[in-house]
Amino acid sequence: MATDNRGIPIPTIKRFPSYLRLLKGYRDEGMEMVSATMLADELGLKPIQVRKDISCTGIEGKPKVGFTVVKLIDAIIHTLGWDNATDAVLIGAGHLGSALARYEGFETYGLKIVAAFDIDQHKWGAKLGEVPVYPLTQLKQYLEENRVNIGVIAVPAVQAQEVAEKLVECGILAIWNFAPKDLKLPMRVVVQRTDLATSFAVLSAKVKRKMVKEDLLEEDDEW
Amino acid sequence: MATDNRGIPIPTIKRFPSYLRLLKGYRDEGMEMVSATMLADELGLKPIQVRKDISCTGIEGKPKVGFTVVKLIDAIIHTLGWDNATDAVLIGAGHLGSALARYEGFETYGLKIVAAFDIDQHKWGAKLGEVPVYPLTQLKQYLEENRVNIGVIAVPAVQAQEVAEKLVECGILAIWNFAPKDLKLPMRVVVQRTDLATSFAVLSAKVKRKMVKEDLLEEDDEW
DNA sequence: TAGATTGTTAATCGATTAACAATC
DNA sequence: TAGATTGTTAATCGATTAACAATC
């Protein structure tokens, strides 16, 4: 059905890559079947949650036996849309951009960074791994000549909004934003943020919570 | 109260850094008061949600006027625990590690990377920005001599578990894991993952959803 | 067979949103 | 004052978890 993906909860989507990594390991070890119980145990989740997640892929298991490892792998990849490779341009060839361009994991997700752009002329002509770096002024032309759907932003915060708008003008459909800046863009554009600040905020909160809990325990001890 | 932070929802925590960035901008422009309505509008949130989030900081506003910008800034920083600087060690001085070590935003969060460690002897003695790189074998000694609470993991997936266990052995309280690997660690250790795969999975799912929606619209057109 | 595991339906839990009185 | 905005209480929404029948 076309509506297949419509209703898959975001939390489930977020767990899929973890399942996928684990399943690929099992496949490489020659394992053929796996139970939700085993996956849950390995990832620190509850079996019921794993079953619910798996049911979103449309795969059915066999009671007492579990699920076929390779079927599950294919189904998750398909559900995520990772079976169709997508080209992306990278804006910003600094340290972060450079690390992203060289990251080999992307091909696993069907993401291919085909070109990088930067305002700094010292970077022009260089290659970040396999990815050539062009002047930012050539972005528009490049996107006219090459069908690219995704833009990856790895520029300083102050430039992020401007770059994003340029990408949208050039027909980019989705933006993966690594700059610490909240972008204001038309609703039709898909924006995904990967923000160190947000991630660290959660870490900080968890640490603080733990501290508080330990403090409380100490207080209890005194009574 | 000591239990202050206990119950702040994770989604709220995740929005705090965005509020913070925006508020700092307002402060720098000399703005003294700000309404939840304005913040919501700027970030694409609903005013009520912003008010709920702000109430978690304990700050009270004035009807018709709003909230004091600098009070709000201080309260969010305090709620996140970012007013106490924390030292961290970085494991892995590759491209990603290098980018993290040089990232200037961390000081905003009260995070200070004091040393990096790597197995590759070619990296020893180098500096990533201000951060010196040592042999991984010196990690244990370093942590005995310096009180560090947070470990940042930026090594390849296959080494992540081993490195994490070593950090835990050495008394690290919290781990920020950038390796694409789910770590199995004692409950008492706080683990925060920043996983490109997870983030890209969400992007992929949103794109796919949009595609489906557009397909459905087209189908509708034919009827 | 017996028992582990699946899949479904219902209950619970937590966050978002709505409604509205209080207030500057 | 009038009206915008706050803060609280209740309703809604969505995800997780529990319960349990089906099944290999």
TrEMBL record, chains A, B:
Show the InterPro entries listed in the entry: CoA-bd, NAD(P)-bd_dom_sf, Rex_DNA-bd_C_dom, Tscrpt_rep_Rex, WH-like_DNA-bd_sf, WH_DNA-bd_sf
Q: Which GO terms describe its cellular component?
A: cytoplasm
Q: Where along the sequence lies the DNA-binding region? A: 18-57
Domain of life per record: Bacteria
Some GO term, biological process aspect, for this entry: which one? response to redox state
Q: Where in the cell is it found?
A: Cytoplasm
GO terms for MF: DNA binding; DNA-binding transcription factor activity
Which of UniProt's keywords are assigned here? Cytoplasm, DNA-binding, NAD, Repressor, Transcription, Transcription regulation
Which residues participate in NAD(+) binding?
A: G92, A93, G94, H95, L96, G97
Looking at the record, the residues that make up the CoA-binding domain are: 82-182
Q: Spell out the PANTHER family in the cross-references.
A: REDOX-SENSING TRANSCRIPTIONAL REPRESSOR REX, REDOX-SENSING TRANSCRIPTIONAL REPRESSOR REX 1
Looking up HAMAP family in the UniProt record yields: Rex
Its biological purpose: Modulates transcription in response to changes in cellular NADH/NAD(+) redox state.
Query: What protein does this entry describe?
Result: Redox-sensing transcriptional repressor Rex
Organism of origin? Sphaerochaeta globosa (strain ATCC BAA-1886 / DSM 22777 / Buddy) (Spirochaeta sp. (strain Buddy))
